[in-house]
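ARCHIVE RECORD
Type: protein–small molecule complex
Small molecule: calcium ion
Source of inputs: curated submission
Record status: active
Notes field left blank by submitter.
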Amino acid sequence: MKKVVLFPALLSLALAFTGVSCSDDDGDDDGDDVAKTYSLSVNVTLPAGAESVGDITVTATHAQTAGTYTATIAAGETNTIIAELPTGQYAVSAKAQATASSVYTGSTAVQVYGNATCTIALSEVSESSLIFKEVYVASNNYYFKDLYWEIVNNSNEVQYLDQCIIGSMGSNWDGPSKWVDESGNMLPYYALNGYVLAFPGNGTDYPLQPGESVVIAQDAANHAEAQGDAAYPDLSDADWEAYLTSTSYSDTDYDTPNLIVIYDESASFYFGAGAFGQAPVLVKLPDGVKATDYAADSTNLATIPNSTSTSLYLKIPNQYVLDAIQIADNEEVAAGGTIYPNLLPKDDASYTWATAWGGKSIRRKAIAIDEDGRVRYQDTNNSAEDFIIDAPLTPGIAPTVVD
Ligand SMILES: [Ca+2]
Ligand SMILES: [Ca+2]
Ligand SMILES: [Ca+2]
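STRUCTURE (tokenized, with ligand):
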């Protein structure tokens, strides 16, 4: 892939010396290429209320060649010019860090057959290093013991699983979310109930290298062997498992490390983050906060607003959510029914699903594969775009082709 990095300051300097417009220059110093190139002026608009946005990276990707051209909009500015673009259609995106876990981003399409201008409206979305690569909660033939969740480090830096929390935000099957204020706006926290699990560790005990993943099994057993049917997954090599001791359900402690049960209000007989219309949610609290201490603090619990229910839910401020997926009922989708959002648009703008009891997973799309085989996964916080519906079960197995 061709990658050209243009620095606006250097570009301005070059133009001052040559005194020519970049669109008059063929952009090639060997003299044998007469292809026309043009400049693209990119303006960005910031979301209302956005303050002190730092440098904004702008990338134009040629639709036919996939060649990429980048430039930077300096802090406080709202425009840059990408010069020497070959003619064609471009997807142009802009991105800046908003908070530690979110970015300002946006994109547009533009045709460059002469000097062109485009405007990108930025909005804030969560961006995570640790994300769900695959979620298998549809089970096979009502079996339940075969569920799994795979988490991948989609960043270029080592990430730590220590104290990361995995749980469920309530169902989107039974009407609009109850976790709203008087105006009907979703509250600034997610409310988890059922089993809520966390990784152990003191901060740096469980590193996950860039591109690596871990599988969390409901039961870390070879279910294909147990059921005599290869349609069930072999989870005997899972990295972690949900070992549940707090109910009458008789769980088995397989020879695989257990996640810690930090909360179990209204818990079912199994761990099912994402089953029955719940949204699986992956959380990292601020450094130094132990998940068990957080869950034991009663100020972090809440009942459903405007309800007589006394069930307590574990509140998670939504800025600590690394990743979350709205999962719809496939029959409801087929029938054209309403799917009620249970997450904020910044975490998931739509929903995906796998056919209930069909033995299929929801697997995130691979958008690129490096020469060493490392897969880059798509995470635009829009599940309809980011995931493959009814994917084959591939726990711990990375795709080998781009989706
Ligand atoms: Ca188990
Ligand atoms: Ca175990
Ligand atoms: Ca996401």
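CURATOR ANNOTATION: Residues 241, 243, 253-254, 256, 258 surround calcium ion (ligand 2) (CB under 6 Å).
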